[in-house]
């Protein structure tokens, strides 16, 4: 282009730039107005989401726990979403999508976002599914939604979670129930429309609570406790929000909004769901993510409140329940009181729970069995007393044997969880754990690789000692398919090798194989789950030969 032609182009550009913008329509405003006008009758205020999984397999995601693939193929109930939805109605129109339970891919999920046109997209995030979960935020953000995340990954590292992902507008740090409601009420200017229950919760949990607005009426985000938000290019993390003082004040979760008929668990016939009986745990295990969210506080629900929720589930046709808690047996009085009510009311529901081996006694286990408990998940972790002591487990192999023997005597099945690769682990201690697992009265045993989740004491120990494998990403922290750990003398490859070998050595023996056969005869769907668990470990022999 000649200099004369270039000058003419520049002159024309300057003339256009000098024209007052007021002479042109505001394209952004037009698009926004058209979006508002085109909202369907199906449109919702807030969409609460458990997004599709990275690979189409079943994953565990929950506000209290870490993310991982469910080798046992459990379909994990999203009761935390139902709990928060119960606080939002009737002020807001809500919808829950559990793409994991529905085995939903991204195409169908995107179509539902288009259908429901949410003003707010609310999702949970975990370390192993981080980029995948952020993709859901991108889809919603591109369709005009404000995006909000919660969970065990955003709580300890909100800045580093949000900084690389501009599609995420807000993160909720800590217990999310009241923070999400407070944020919505500020954004929608509906604080005056709160129900009496919500007003009570807001006042009781924080004596210093007050709404946060600027003089011009806009939201002052810095005054909303428990919120991480964007101030230009900077991510700001507000002071923490106090915990809900009394869990008994919370409404019953809206279980009917969940695909509860699709929630499944091995050794349970038919669908099941969770009842949250408490939050928090008094134990001090260095690897546990629950302390990141709840520190060492414990809040329990009254047995009468739990019974009220049990009858709601019973009326929905659900007869199987997992008592979901960081530690179900944290309060003996609560457990005994609940069991007596279940027996007296003749509710006739089967239920499972978790426990620690040092938080039970023989009399309580007998009562639990009489009330319908038929399976307990135990965090045994290791057969090495030294490793358990370093991990601040607060229990030892002798207590594990005693508790599981009591449970078996009461007629309760035992499900044992073990961790390969806690600090001070060696190949000799792993062998010790495998042999110990074989001696326990277990119906199922699962072995996971230790995962140093952000915010845990284990995480900081790994950082201090340089045990993070160079170049690893959060997506590799799934405790089964990958690990970020690289110990001197025990690298990631060996940890994964021993994790697979441990399951094979435990499972392919006459006793456990007979258990799987009984599952086949009693429930073909449960047997398929157990079989798939074994198939996922068939590569062990070839890896053994390579080693």
The CATH topology name of the largest domain reads: TIM Barrel
Give the low-confidence spans.
522-527, 529-547
End-to-end span in angstroms?
Answer: 68 Å
Please give the domain count: 2
Strand order of the largest sheet: 4-1-5-6-7-8-9
Q: Considering the protein shown, what is the CATH homologous superfamily of the largest domain?
A: Aldolase class I
The oligomeric state of the chains shown is single chain
Secondary structure blueprint with pairings:
Blueprint (H helix, E strand, L loop, with lengths): L2 H16 L8 H11 L8 E5 L8 E2 L7 E2 L9 H10 L5 E5 L7 H11 L3 E5 L5 H12 L4 E5 L7 H5 L7 E3 L4 H11 L8 H10 L21 E5 L2 E4 L35 E4 L1 E2 L10 H5 L4 E2 L2 H13 L4 E5 L7 H14 L4 E6 L6 H9 L2 E9 L3 H6 L6 H14 L2 E8 L6 H13 L4 E6 L7 H9 L26 H16 L2 H13 L1 H12 L4 H7 L1
Parallel strand pairs: 1-4, 1-5, 5-6, 6-7, 10-13, 13-14, 14-15, 15-16, 16-17
Antiparallel strand pairs: 2-3, 7-8, 8-9, 11-12
Helix pairs in contact: 3-7, 10-11, 11-12, 12-14, 15-17, 17-20, 18-19
Q: Would you kindly provide a written description of the structure presented here, covering whatever features stand out?
A:
It is built from 20 helices and 17 strands. It has 547 residues and is α/β, with parallel strands linked by helices. It has 2 domains: 46-237, 3-Layer(aba) Sandwich (Rossmann fold), CATH 3.40.50; 265-546, Alpha-Beta Barrel (TIM Barrel). The strands form 4 sheets. It has a 7-stranded mixed beta sheet, with helices on both faces.
Describe, in short, the structure shown.
The protein is of the alpha/beta class and 547 residues long. The protein is built from 20 helices and 17 strands.
């Amino acid at each position: 282009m000649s200099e004369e032609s270039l000058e003419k182009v520049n002159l024309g550009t300057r003339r256009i730039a000098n024209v007052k913008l007021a002479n042109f329509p505001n394209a952004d405003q037009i698009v926004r107005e058209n979006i508002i006008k085109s909202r369907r009758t199906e449109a919702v205020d807030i969409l609460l989401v458990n997004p599709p999984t990275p690979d189409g397999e079943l994953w565990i995601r929950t506000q209290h726990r870490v993310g991982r693939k469910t080798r046992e193929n459990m379909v994990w109930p999203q009761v935390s979403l139902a709990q928060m939805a119960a606080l939002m109605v009737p002020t807001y129109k809500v919808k829950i999508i559990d793409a994991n339970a529905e085995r939903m891919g991204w195409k169908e999920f995107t179509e539902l976002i288009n259908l429901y046109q949410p003003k707010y997209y609310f999702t949970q995030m975990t370390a192993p599914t981080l980029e995948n979960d952020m993709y859901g935020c991108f889809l919603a953000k591109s369709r005009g939604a404000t995006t909000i995340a919660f969970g065990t990954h955003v709580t300890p590292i909100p800045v580093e979670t949000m900084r690389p992902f501009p599609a995420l507008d807000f993160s909720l740090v800590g217990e999310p129930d009241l923070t999400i409601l407070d944020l919505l009420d500020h954004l929608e200017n509906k604080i005056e429309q709160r129900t009496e229950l919500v007003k009570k919760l807001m006042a009781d949990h924080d004596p210093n609570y007050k709404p946060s607005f600027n003089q011009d009426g806009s939201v002052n985000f810095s005054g909303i406790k428990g919120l991480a938000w964007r101030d230009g290019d900077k991510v700001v993390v507000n002071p923490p929000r106090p915990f809900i003082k009394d869990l008994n004040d919370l409404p019953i979760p809206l279980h009917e909004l969940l695909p509860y008929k699709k929630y499944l668990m091995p050794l349970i016939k038919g669908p099941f769901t969770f009842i949250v009986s408490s939050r928090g745990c008094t134990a001090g295990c260095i690897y546990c993510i629950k302390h990141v969210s709840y520190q060492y506080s414990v809040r329990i629900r009254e047995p009468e409140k739990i019974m009220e929720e049990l009858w709601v589930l019973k009326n929905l046709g659900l007869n199987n329940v997992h008592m979901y808690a960081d530690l179900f047996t944290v309060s003996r009085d609560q457990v005994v009181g609940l069991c007596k009510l279940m027996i007296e009311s003749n509710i006739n529901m089967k239920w499972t729970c978790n426990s620690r081996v040092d938080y039970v006694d023989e009399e309580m286990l007998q009562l639990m069995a009489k009330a319908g408990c038929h399976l307990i998940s135990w965090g045994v972790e290791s057969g090495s007393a030294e490793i358990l002591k370093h991990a601040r487990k607060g229990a030892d192999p002798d207590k594990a044997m005693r508790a599981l023997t009591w449970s078996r005597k009461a007629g309760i099945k035992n499900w044992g969880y073990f961790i390969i690769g806690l600090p001070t682990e060696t190949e000799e201690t792993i062998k010790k754990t495998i042999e110990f697992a074989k001696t326990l009265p277990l119906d199922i045993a699962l072995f996971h690789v230790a995962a140093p989740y952000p915010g845990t004491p284990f995480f900081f120990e790994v950082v201090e000692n340089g045990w993070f494998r160079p170049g690893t990403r959060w997506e590799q922290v799934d405790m089964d398919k990958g690990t970020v750990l690289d110990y001197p003398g025990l690298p990631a490859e060996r940890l994964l090798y021993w994790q697979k070998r441990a399951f094979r050595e435990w499972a392919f023996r006459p006793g456990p194989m007979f258990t799987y056969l009984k599952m086949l005869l009693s429930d073909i769907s449960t047997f398929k789950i157990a079989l798939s668990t074994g198939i996922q470990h068939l590569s062990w022999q070839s890896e053994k030969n390579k080693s």
